[in-house]
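Friendly challenge for the regulars: who can give me the structure tokens for this chain first? No prize, just bragging rights.
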Amino acid sequence: MQYSLSLSTAPAIAGSTHFSRSSGLVPSKPIINLRFCGLRREVFGFSSLKQSASHTPRISTTRAPRSGNLVVAAASSSDNGRASKSFDYDLLIIGAGVGGHGAALHAVEKGLKTAIVEGDVVGGTCVNRGCVPSKALLAVSGRMRELQNEHHLKALGLQVAAASYDRQGVADHANNLATKIRSNLTNSMKALGVDILTGFGTILGPHKVKVGSNTVTAKDIIIATGSVPFVPKGIEVDGKTVITSDHALKLESVPDWIAIVGSGYIGLEFSDVYTALGSEVTFVEALDQLMPGFDPEIGKLAQRVLINPRKIDYHTGVFASKITPAKDGKPVTIELIDAKTKEPKDTLEVDAALIATGRAPFTKGLGLENVNVTTQRGFIPVDERMRVIDANGKLVPHIYCIGDANGKMMLAHAASAQGISVVEQVTGRDHVLNHLSIPAACFTHPEISMVGLTEPQAREKAEKEGFEIGIAKTSFKANTKALAENEGEGLAKLIYRPDNGEILGVHIFGLHAADLIHEASNAIALGTRIQDLKLAVHAHPTLSEVLDELFKSAKVKAHVSSRVSEPVAV
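First reply, four minutes later:
Bragging rights claimed.
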């Protein structure tokens, strides 16, 4: 559930006035609302940098604050380089979420004097209101499903009494995990000497940022301010009975019947949580089928496993034009209209409603007008190197934007990768991130993962460029480890070019799909061809053999091995 989810592998630009493609609300332009966790190992207390055993970091301030509005906290470390005499810092990052964190740590590795500005809490959406707490809730839902599945347990020779849960204990587990990761993330940056400036950052110029009432200078600036839940017009959120993902992650209640507006990643993951805890779920989806962003074949299988057998019903092809919270003993009311004719269709009365319609970039108040930058539906325009583009189409010197704020790919780990790419550039190494190599995952039970193009997207590309595509599939039912776990329900699908062995896309539905996808994503990133992957060795018996069989089943005409040219980033 990190967060946000409604997958569309094609890039889209949208903002506070637009709706998610997979929402049940009237859209004008699509929002990609993918968001997933991409925390680095330093968050868990492990540093990738070598430090002297005798070196003891000390808390210090880089520059004396002129008022109480700016708090500068850092552990002075020899690993954090010295800035040019002309600037306070080599690199200043506005936003301390996963993207900002990844950029900061890589900057220190490169010897840059680095500071990060955070106006809320360190960790951003992912750690505090997204992928981290959601994984805690999904861990509970996974355990509950195992304990409630008598047929599955009997097949393994197990007998377990009826499972139950403590709602507050589940909520505490999610909150405690977020607190721990937030603390580890903060400490990791302090230990490496990254200065954490507390306050809202406003850009005054290419090298100047106002933090509180203070002005800080830096040679280069990265904007990494992330996003917030998007709530369309006509919906009244009270935080109790009509909620966003921010509220849902607190698990203040488990309603008997909850409507989820949008059947993308957020909606799917929360349906997994709520149904495992006993709720009935109703999806409201604007398009004619559920899970519209997935590869159609995978989506069809996922619906058969994740939707049909559970206490879930759905309305497709409709918009939720108005949602009113419960009040004075009356239930939540949801007015539905036909997606095409806009005629009234139905009215739902439920105990609660979760708005899973995507996310909007958080870019207001950044002072973009001071560098002549105009947002596009809230998103900051950038080129393939994350360099900010002004209103005249020209690059703004020394200012970059990463993550949800630029709208290229709204995933936490994509933000981190973009940040690392920017650091490579400012330290003298040109780098363009291949967004088609970035994987995505939905942490339902079982999981869904993907990288690259869906089959319809691949066929469209093939028709335009004049090549054929091949499709290979393998079932989890043929995997020994999956059968040992009694988890044979699953499919892996490979979309490729038979003429040269290039991987165009891989989609997996099944046990630990989120972990399995990385062999494919790394192959795409490195330009590795299928004919080389056929020779790779996988331990037996492991789930990784699902990918092994998948690559071996591909019919590649070319036998010559050569690296695939890296495509231009999306």
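The mean pLDDT is 86. The first strand starts at residue 58 and ends at 60. Your move, everyone else.
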